[in-house]
Amino acid sequence: MIDLAALSGLRAVATHGSVIAAAEATGFTPSAVSQQVKRLERQVGVPLLERVGRGVMLTSHGRHLVEAGEQVLADLERLEAEIQHRAGVVTGSVRLVAFSTAMRGLVAPVARRLLDEHPGLRLTLDEREPWDTVDLVAAGQCEVGIVHRWGGVTFAVPDHLATTRVADDVADLIVAADHPLASRDKVTPRDLLDVDWIATPEGTICRQWLHRMYDGTGRPPRIAHVSMEFESHLALVAAGLGVALVPRLGRAPLGPDLVAIDVYDPVPTRLVDALHRRTMADSPAVRAVLDALRAG
Amino acid sequence: MIDLAALSGLRAVATHGSVIAAAEATGFTPSAVSQQVKRLERQVGVPLLERVGRGVMLTSHGRHLVEAGEQVLADLERLEAEIQHRAGVVTGSVRLVAFSTAMRGLVAPVARRLLDEHPGLRLTLDEREPWDTVDLVAAGQCEVGIVHRWGGVTFAVPDHLATTRVADDVADLIVAADHPLASRDKVTPRDLLDVDWIATPEGTICRQWLHRMYDGTGRPPRIAHVSMEFESHLALVAAGLGVALVPRLGRAPLGPDLVAIDVYDPVPTRLVDALHRRTMADSPAVRAVLDALRAG
DNA sequence: CATTCCATGTAGTCTCGCTACATGATTGAT
DNA sequence: ATCAATCATGTAGCGAGACTACATGGAATG
């Protein structure tokens, strides 16, 4: 009999291209993944992986096994969800991965109530950036992923994942109370050509969107300081080092030394989506989590 | 993730109707089967088995899980066979179950050569009566089963099993060398109305056929002695206690004190068939075993 | 040619699933 | 009504199997 856990290991090797990458994607050691593949090879009696250079490559049999095995794996997951759906029982383990502001602004308020309402539900939380999140959901490492994308800035989501809109998160311009713009009702990027920005690091989605917001002005934003966390942005703004664009989701109440100003034309909005595998669409547990997120 | 081994346990309970029967069908203890079901229930979070009286019954969810799970199990088995088929490698483990005369007359001569030709093949032999054999093959407890049926005496074979004719086994009348019939070239049941028979026990297929052979005579055969094994039949015949109908397959050479006489009208022929699950039709290992049996 | 990176062996540990046995529950018989 | 029989299921203990940590062996890179 083919061992499905081992098959998952081979699938991870196939999708990630190396034993080491597969190992860290599945949370095992490279040795464990290697042994899983060997176990599979012993079970079917056919070589599945071959060394090429200092890496590995799937044999044609290995590729075929993964392709067809994925179907079996999906069928099994769908079957489990279907049984629970028929029973109408919210039960089982849901691993949820979110980006940090969603974790504190969206997940945290909802999780407690969710667990109280459904005693059979086991919820496991983890914090990742959106790109990693997509991979984790796609590979079956977690059931629900929460990602954000600014309007227009998209990234690819595999076909076998479904998307649910969870929130529209608007960002405000945060300035110090004594800043010249502090008295303004609302501002547009053309008002912000000469301000110093406190921004997230190069390569982050928020940073990309800050640039895109300036598209109509013909100039790039002037980045003065960089920080990972929006909480730190607030501190830097309060210290008079510049202004920041901070989403409302998960934002702590502003102190008296800070002012939030609406931005328009365009309104900086990021879309917050929940991802799940379509095979889990019938799972009452996943559905309960999604419903709670949408309502919260 | 649903544990497929546990699912097999539940399936056995479903098909055999009780935990104990499922246990002896799968070769586990009742406690193990019970724990397998509990494990499954924990994984899907839905009760699958409920006590009724002093036995058990599947819940509707349990029945649905078995029904759909059987599909997954079959897909996985088919996938394994298909991979090996593509590779053209005779490998893996084949469990073969046969009735006793086939074991010594058919399997034994073939097994040695089979193992020598295919080093990757692991062959496990077991001896059972045909009814048990059908169950074992159907339930996935063995890959190949060898059964016999006399013409006309049939038994049900599930749809998902395939049948391969392996041999036509003719039985002769065995009499002591000093018996009045010993000089005859051939005999017909009408010549045997008053002989004492040495027969297999009530309920065996051979016994049923002995009765059916007498259908045209209007009389039942006179059973004098009963013995499980044809080897013993020969000894009893040699001792002058009666005559016996002994198949040629697996029959030891007759001593000088015994004579084999052809029977006609009807010729007592039993059909020897090999059974295998259709999901294993592509398995080179199963195919090699079947080919060898047919050739031998 | 040394260094680095990757995969894979090896030894040890730990978890998980099975067996053996005991218990609880229900039915049928005396 | 009681006792025996039968079935399922808990519990303790044991053994196999799967993973981790570490060491080894190739292959590419500078």
TrEMBL record, chains A, B:
Which PROSITE patterns has this protein been placed in?
HTH_LYSR
Q: Name one GO cellular component term.
A: protein-DNA complex
State if DNA-binding is listed as a keyword: yes
Q: Which InterPro entries match?
A: LysR_HTH_N, LysR_subst-bd, WH-like_DNA-bd_sf, WH_DNA-bd_sf
User: One GO molecular function term?
Assistant: DNA-binding transcription factor activity
**Keyword check for Transcription regulation:** yes
Q: Recite the UniProt keywords alphabetically.
A: DNA-binding, Transcription, Transcription regulation
- All copies of the HTH lysR-type domain together span 2-59
Q: Which SUPFAM superfamilies match?
A: Periplasmic binding protein-like II, Winged helix' DNA-binding domain
- What's the domain of life for this entry? Bacteria
The family database entries (Pfam families) matched by this protein are listed as:
HTH_1, LysR_substrate
For this chain, the family text in UniProt reads: Belongs to the LysR transcriptional regulatory family.
| Protein name stated in the entry | LysR family transcriptional regulator
Highest classification ranks of the organism: Bacteria, Bacillati, Actinomycetota, Actinomycetes, Propionibacteriales
